[in-house]
Here is the input.
Amino acid sequence: MSFINQILPKITRSTVATENDAAGATGFTLKPVYQLSQTPEAWTLVAQLPGVTKEGLEVTAEDGLVTIKGRRAWQQPEGWTSLYRESYDSPYALTLQHDNTVDAGQIQAELKDGLLRVSLPKAAALKPRKITVN
Amino acid sequence: MNRLLQYTYPRRAYFNRSALGGLETELGRLFDSALADLAPIARSPRFAVDLYADKDNTYVRAELPGVNRDAISVEMADGYLNIGATRQVQDESVALNRSIAIPESVQADKVTAAYENGVLTVTLPKQEQAKPRKINITVN
Here is the structure.
């Protein structure tokens, strides 16, 4: 099933809102564009959250899950008429499962210009280790 | 670790679409996503743009998170607004470009732009004669 998910992710897309607490009135959230990379020490997550400020951002780590929720700060001013919209007003939500391979106490996050960089240090057991041979 | 390494296409909010619809149709996105796994989405040179207007100005808001501030270029030519930026994605520089048709004629020398929280807002003041004006008509 996951192989099919990779080729045609649309098949598994649900039409009902599944995110609840982060969502606004409509209950929908948006999954941000994100990238994951790794170094021997940690995983790095870079997520694009345009319009989100530190006040609207929430990064939590619990139970083997890393959850990112972001709300946009900007409201459309009264006199403005929207002529053409491509962006969405819904809040962002992203959940990543790590199954305890990440050291949750050492996670660091930085938000700059709408780009969130999270450094997820690998749990000690996963780091490459040299084994001495007797 | 399949979960951490899976790239997925941003999921859209289905019922928040504007009346004009997006530029992409379902089928377009289906094809894009089939090919998307070959090139991560974060490298895509496309970005979302919103157009607003009030009686004095036309506004363009572009979602450009994480681009180099100094590298953002905003140019006005022939009724088109050209926005360019570069983004660093893992040692690679991605160039973003978009040309937007502005519906009203613009006072080109009074255009201003601000980049905040990853969103670029360009304010284009309308030409004086393009502003809505009441015209009194006397009928004889």
User: Anything to note?
Assistant: The helical segments of chain B are 26-36.
